[in-house]
């Protein structure tokens, strides 16, 4: 593995450990506290559970963001249009051929946060536009 690849992997591991993993540990502790509150202070449970719900959504958002940073296998197997569709992007693309992996990855990561995009080929190049 190249030193750049190793550094990227280590950075990803730190993000996972310091972010999502810590959030999930905190959620587990707070769930235990919620169970104890059910017995000791039932009136305090409802607002505490609402806070837990917000914490769960924050952890999900962070997990999704990390997941988007990972090179998706569908990109390798089926190309950029299918990878974007799998990520929930509406894609308008017809007769798009395969392109070098670095080109497809660049387009994928540039477009994965879009709601809808249009892909086309022009003069042998892969083009895209957010719709």
Largest sheet: 3 strands, mixed
Mean pLDDT over all positions: 86
Low-confidence stretches: none
Class of secondary structure makeup: alpha+beta
Secondary-structure element string? HHHHEHEE
What multimeric state do the chains show? single chain
Helix content: 55-70%
The number of distinct helices, counting runs of at least 4 residues, comes to 5
Query: What portion of residues belong to β-strands?
Result: 5-15%
In angstroms, what is the radius of gyration? 21 Å
Distance between the termini: 38 Å
Total of domains: 2
Number of strands: 3
Shape designation: elongated
Q: In which order are the strands of the major sheet placed?
A: 1-2-3
Features:
single chain, 131 residues, alpha+beta, 2 domains, three-stranded mixed beta sheet, 5 helices, elongated
Description:
By secondary structure, this protein is an alpha+beta fold. The longest helix is centred in the N-terminal third of the chain and has 38 residues, at 3-40. It has 5 helices and 3 strands, in the order H-H-H-H-E-H-E-E. It has helices spanning 3-40, 42-69, 73-78, 80-86, 101-111; strands at 90-93, 116-122, 125-130. Helix content is 69%, strand content 13%. A 3-stranded mixed beta sheet has the order 1-2-3, with helices on one face. It folds into 2 domains: 3-69; 73-130, no CATH class. Strand 2 (116-122) and strand 3 form a beta hairpin.
